């Protein structure tokens, strides 16, 4: 019947390598084996536990009875190898005691620094007791072995090498799966990092001001006989501020500087008012280039309204036949003449003829009900 042990492994280390001891204990106890292999061997998914690791420095002297009992209760001995542990009398005693227990084949070496069998004593990572006891030729799992381009991948490979030796399984049987998992995690980490960076860049950009260019587009019929847009007043209304500028011409633009970036792609109010044009008051989504539609007011040069007045009788003349732009109209009982000209045919000045002689032969727009043309 196979002997039962309290600990799967005992970690032997020098106090200078305590961080590696803690890290290795965590790695071994949390390493999860493939489910199919666990079913075949009757293992739990994390079979390498518990692992004994003395959390405090060991005082000089012989092995205490407590440590001897811990070593006896351990299936394997894992030695963290470095130039420090190579010079450690205590590590040598733990190796020798485990050897005396008859478990030499269960001694495993995990190299974190230095070189195996180095001619330089300051670089040697194996404790001299290894040679003194005549232990068989060993090849420890070395985190510094240059197998892969990335150092972290070499460290993971060394962990898996140690796991395969502790469990007596083929290295390739678990390394390929472990590497795929590492690559997936690395890719997920990269994408996660990129997302975080993108979010940070977005927040950074939110805090930067931006410049907004506003242009207008005439949607009404264009008429070359009418005055061009000039000095339009453009107002950009934000939640906590209002910006105003003047648009000098239809093909020009206004530039609003230092607009908070947080308003980008948010609805804002834009108002454009100009002589001869209808006032535009609209809501747009704020972008770095805003285009607003404007339309000419067809009433300015198209709604003709004036009166014919006789200064001799001091009366408005009704029933006077008037010819304007090829159209004939008559003044009403108040002397009022009205006519609507389509936008495409509008002008600033219209020639007029009437059935009575008039002082003027041209009509200048805009004009209204109070505008009078006198009879001669």
The arrangement of helices and strands along the chain is EHHEHEHHEHEHHEEEEEEEHEEEEEEEE
CATH level 3 topology of the largest domain:
Rossmann fold
Give the count of structural domains.
Answer: 3
Q: What percentage of residues falls in helices of 4 or more residues?
A: 25-40%
Overview of the structural elements:
This protein is of the alpha/beta class and 376 residues long. The chain folds into three domains: 7-169, Toll/interleukin-1 receptor homology (TIR) domain (Rossmann fold), CATH 3.40.50; 209-296, Immunoglobulins (Immunoglobulin-like, Sandwich), CATH 2.60.40; 299-374, Sandwich (Immunoglobulin-like). Helices cover 28% and strands 30% of the residues. The chain has nine helices and 20 strands. The protein has a five-stranded parallel beta sheet with strand order 2-1-3-4-5, sandwiched between helices. It has a four-stranded antiparallel beta sheet with strand order 8-7-10-11, with no helix packed on it. Strands 13, 14, 17 and 20 form a four-stranded mixed beta sheet that branches. Strand 18 and strand 19 form a beta hairpin. Helix 7 packs antiparallel against helix 8 (171-206). Mean pLDDT is 89; it is low at 57-61.
